[in-house]
Amino acid sequence: MRFLVRLVINAVAIWLAAEWVSGIEIASSGRGQGWDVVVVLFIALVFTVVNAAIRPVVKLLSLPLLIVTLGLFTLVINALMLWLTAWISQATDYGLTISGFGAAFWGALIVSLVNWLLGALVPEHSRR
């Protein structure tokens, strides 16, 4: 259940980042609005797997930078994870397109804030 909640929160966060940041686009196969939901959920699934599998290793390897920057380097790590998600999802007919690191940075900031906000709104028993 927690995985599904995290997946939906990530989907909303990525969709908002694509709406608000000009360098981020969600490419769909043109099958209508209902299909776009599936596309966003697919991208969120890729993002969730990337965050679960790769992000901890990157954070461990960049621990000295995280300490020196008092954790602000986490924003760069989040941008790299979003960029990696875009790279992986572009292997399909639909995916996430990010025009550069600046767009990835601002998109990751939005994704982080939305994840934090929506995660705080989820009841405690759903998070366990």
Strand order of the main beta sheet, please? Answer: 1-2
What is the succession of H and E elements? HEHHHHEHH
Approximate helicity band: over 70%
Let me know the average pLDDT: 88
Which residues sit in consecutive blocks of at least 5 with pLDDT less than 50? none
What is the end-to-end distance? Answer: 9 Å
Largest sheet: 2 strands, antiparallel
Number of distinct helices: 7
Strand content: 5-15%
Total DSSP E strands: 2
- Tally of distinct domains: 1
Rg from Cα: 15 Å
Counting helices, strands and paired strands, the structural category is mainly alpha
Apparent shape: globular
Brief summary of the model shown:
With 128 residues, this protein is mainly alpha-helical. It has seven helices and two strands, in the order αβααααβαα. It has one domain.
Describe the 3D structure:
The chain has one domain. The chain has seven helices and two strands. The radius of gyration is 15 Å and the shape is globular. 74% of the residues lie in helices and 6% in strands. The chain is mostly helical. The protein has helices at 2-20, 33-53, 55-61, 63-68, 73-89, 101-121, 124-127; strands at residues 24-27, 95-98. The model has no long low-confidence stretch (mean pLDDT 88). It has a two-stranded antiparallel sheet.
